[in-house]
Write a structure and sequence with these properties.
five-stranded parallel beta sheet, 2 domains, Dihydrodipicolinate Reductase, domain 2, Rossmann fold, 15 strands, Gfo/Idh/MocA_oxidoreduct
Length: 375
């Protein structure tokens, strides 16, 4: 049985637990949260052991165990540092850290200790992302030339988010989400896919802004819109938008010489990947309006979860892939290098403002190995 410990049992922790239902081989030895009332409610709901302190949690987790850091973003650095110092591998919710200096410190500490360090999101390990990446490798659309990706979530500040609760009753952390910003919270869903397909980003040209002020009364919140052009070391160019203002749009399109590969749902591990062939019709160049579904060679991929709100994602794919990596004596696909590079690109986009210019990235990561069933 694999050993995990959870720190932080708010809204997102229920999404992890719902995902772990599909993976009964995972064993969670205990949970800790600063909010003891919330901790009790969560543990009672999921029949887990509540720990009185972080130290007690570390004592209960066997050597070589994995700490799932599901705390609020501002606490990620401190909690991950403590877990690494205690000798445990760490899988953190996004972002790895809200400051790049802190992210580098975590990366260095994991390296010194010989421990694995990864951060969400893990949908890049899911069936849809892996199918899209395989189609790109196989040249289904010909040589890829450009990517358009959207992570636009609608006018969230007008949504009835005070009624959004998780399975165990935790409220959606609206103020924290607005303070952290949609780019830090969501850009990784497609950045990880792009990095897995095309490798590291060399240059970021971006802009960001807060166009709906007052989401948290009396506070200046993080940008609620960002638009980035990403120049990859291998030559690919991608545009990524991320907003909580523009109408909901979660599609990604990889434009190639023969046509376009398209996915309409970033947050669905089983969303179809479709190829829209390009052809000439009466002296006009058009893409086939009805795409052909692209399939893997196997139907055996990974456990799926039901839909929860706008998402149908298995949040346990990342932690379980880390566990498999430990079993096989290798680095995990969501490696520390991958997490650090993701953090740098995301912060560059969010912090771009109106006058950032071109920003050269200083971190690098290797091209991700496909999942065994998607090779």
């Amino acid at each position: 049985m694999s050993k995990f410990a959870i720190i932080g049992c708010g809204f997102v922790a229920d999404l992890y637990m719902g995902s772990f239902r599909t993976m009964p081989e995972a064993e969670i030895v205990g949970v800790y949260d600063l909010d003891h009332a919330r901790l009790k409610t969560f543990c009672d709901h999921w029949n887990l052991k509540a720990m009185e302190s972080r130290e007690a949690l570390f004592e209960a987790l066997p050597e070589g165990g994995i700490v799932l850091n599901l705390t609020n973003p501002d606490a990620h650095f401190a909690v991950s540092s403590a877990a690494l110092e205690a000798g445990f591998h760490v899988y953190s919710e996004k972002p790895l850290a809200t400051r790049m200096d802190d992210a580098r410190a975590l990366h260095a500490l994991a390296g010194e200790k010989g421990l694995l360090l990864a951060s969400a999101p893990c949908s890049v390990l899911g069936e849809t992302a892996q199918t899209l990446a395989r189609a790109v490798r196989k040249g289904v659309a010909g040589t890829p030339r450009l990517v358009y990706a959207e992570l636009d979530d609608g006018f969230i500040s007008q949504a009835p988010y005070d009624k959004w609760t998780s399975e165990s009753g935790a409220p959606w952390p609206a103020e924290d989400e607005f303070r952290v910003g949609c780019t830090l919270e969501h850009a990784g869903y497609y950045l990880t896919w792009l990095m897995a397909m095309f490798g590291p980003v060399k240059t970021v040209v971006a802009a960001s802004a807060t166009v709906v002020p007052g989401k948290v009364p009396g506070e200046e919140t993080a940008p609620d819109v960002s638009i980035a052009t990403l120049f990859f070391e291998g030559g690919m160019v991608a545009r990524l938008t991320c907003t909580i203002v523009a109408p909901h749009d979660h599609q990604i399109r990889v434009v190639g010489d023969k046509g376009t590969l398209a996915v309409k749902e970033a947050w669905n591990n089983a969303a179809p990947v479709k190829f829209h062939r390009r052809f000439t019709l009466r002296r006009r160049l058009v893409d086939m309006p009805v795409g052909r579904k692209v399939r893997l060679d196997t139907k055996e991929t990974h456990p799926k979860v039901g839909r929860w709100g706008a998402a149908s994602m298995n949040f346990a794919l990342g932690p379980m892939e880390m566990l498999q990596a430990l079993t096989e004596g290798r680095d995990c696909r969501l490696s520390a290098d991958f997490a650090l590079h993701l953090n740098e690109v995301t912060l560059a986009i969010q912090g771009a403002g109106a006058h950032s210019g071109a920003q050269e990235m200083t971190t690098r990561c290797e091209l991700m190995e496909p999942m065994p069933w998607a090779g």
